[in-house]
From TrEMBL:
It comes from Crateriforma conspicua. It comes from the Bacteria. This is Uncharacterized protein.
Length: 254
């Protein structure tokens, strides 16, 4: 049986080996195990040839074996600590977004597309290894370079995050359809970043609840470090409704 390597990275990180395909694995992790009874699952499929002794992958073939009955091994945890920093950028493959009822949407990486003509601040949901919600003047590439620069007092070797929506109504309030539980505070943070040129970023929430998370995604997801960045563009609502209707219907529920 083929062995797949999955990096789970939704507010925690774990490297898991499995004989299951990505769709089967996502469904299993969301609804097929008592260890996880609610919530979304987000994970990368890594290059199957990637090996790292720091992540115990030198033991992969001897640890991820079928059960004695011949059934595939659904999950074998290889590492649960400081995983992302040991996986080089080139090893990251497809990104899989799983809803709480086990439906999987797969995104391919693409060359980074800088936002054109953007004047307002960005809001990012950091997902791994950090988890705050932040607002910033920096676009995704600039933000990645800043947060992974070891010369800065606060930095990480690699970062995974999503750009989330900050659309406003005509009166300047966050759009009513956005499911944030503290819209007034987010508005204040956005205004502070916009009106203070010397301030490049501000933490909105250190440990934010990610209610209806998939409904809040803007341009997409990003993983990067000092060597570069990979972008995983998020489909438009029209495309989600037309091509991924069942997944989107599930995603809008939580």
């Amino acid at each position: 049986m083929d062995i797949h390597l999955y990096l789970m990275c939704y507010r925690h990180e774990a490297l898991v080996a499995s004989h299951l395909s990505a769709e089967e694995f996502g469904a299993y992790m969301a609804v097929g195990t008592r260890k996880k009874t609610f919530g979304n699952v987000v994970f990368f499929e890594l290059d199957p040839s990637f090996r790292s002794s720091e992540l115990n992958l030198d033991q992969l073939e001897e640890r991820c074996v079928p059960h004695s009955s011949g059934q595939p091994r659904r999950s074998k945890y290889m590492s649960v600590y400081r995983v992302m920093e040991h996986v080089p950028l080139e090893a990251y493959g497809q990104l899989h977004l799983t809803t709480r009822d086990g439906r999987v949407l797969t995104l391919d990486s693409q060359d980074y597309q800088a936002p054109a003509g953007r004047s307002e601040a960005f809001m990012y949901a950091e997902l791994c290894p950090l988890t705050p919600r932040v607002v910033t003047k920096l676009d995704p590439l600039e933000f990645t370079k800043k947060i992974t620069d070891s010369a800065n007092p606060v930095s990480v070797p690699r970062i995974f995050f999503a750009e989330t929506q900050v659309a406003r109504d005509s009166d300047g309030r966050l759009a009513g359809y956005l499911p944030y539980n503290n819209p007034a505070h987010i508005e204040d943070c956005l205004d502070e970043i916009t009106n203070k040129p010397a301030k490049f970023a501000k933490t909105v929430d250190r440990d934010p609840p990610l209610t209806a998370f998939y409904r809040t995604i803007a341009s997409g997801f990003y993983v990067g470090d000092s060597t570069g960045i990979k972008q995983y563009a998020y489909p438009s609502v029209d495309e989600l409704e037309e091509k991924h209707h069942k997944w989107w219907r599930s995603a809008t529920m939580g």
